[in-house]
Design brief:
Blueprint lengths: L6 H4 L3 H16 L3 H8 L3 H8 L7 H11 L3 H4 L4 H4 L26
Helix pairs in contact: 3-4, 3-5
């Protein structure tokens, strides 16, 4: 079975592979860090540090994130997940939802 790993992918630690995969899966689902964190019962800042590979994670939290993104935990640690799930690795953020801002009114107008 041929592997398509590049040199840089071979040198990634499991923590960085997990971080990249969680971020890609979340982005492709169109979900914000805040919403994913809420779904998993975790803090958004914790999720952010995980996605940047700055923090280790417990098995319990891996399971929570796995359920929140709908991807089995073992797949989140697979070095070739982007290829297996055909994820675009060039995406860097989830699309923002449309926000409605109030229109500023001039004084005296209704």
């Amino acid at each position: 079975m041929a592997r398509s790993n590049t040199t840089s992918e071979k040198s990634l630690s499991l923590r960085l592979i997990f971080a990249r995969n969680v971020r890609l899966v979340r982005i492709h689902a169109g979900v914000s860090q805040e919403n994913m964190a809420a779904e998993a019962g975790l803090d958004r800042t914790f999720v952010g540090t995980l996605e940047r590979g700055l923090r280790n994670i417990s098995i319990d939290n891996i399971e929570l994130i796995s359920k929140a993104v709908g991807v089995p935990a073992h797949e989140l640690m697979h070095p070739n997940l982007p290829e297996l799930r055909q994820l675009d690795t060039s995406l860097t953020r989830a699309p923002r939802t449309e926000r409605v801002y109030p229109v500023a009114r001039k004084k005296g107008s209704r």
